[in-house]
Task: structure prediction
Amino acid sequence: MLVLVIAYLIWLRFTPPSCNYTEVQALDKVTEHVTWLKRNTKGLGPSKFKREDCSYSYTYQGPEGKFEHVFGNWGEVHTWDYAQGEL
Result:
């Protein structure tokens, strides 16, 4: 039994997490969020995927400043304003 528990813990350590969303879904949600903030979506850069937590991040640059929009594995969008801190 102890061997099974140890094997399971090792398997958990080296198995990547399963992601709930695709890149297309992340981009749709971030685009919706950027539109809600009344910013031009053309300012969004390409996605950066972080495998450890299945998040996608998009850098926005425009007249309003530079922002990072992070789409998390639970479907939430967080915005980081480089000039002032997190929104």
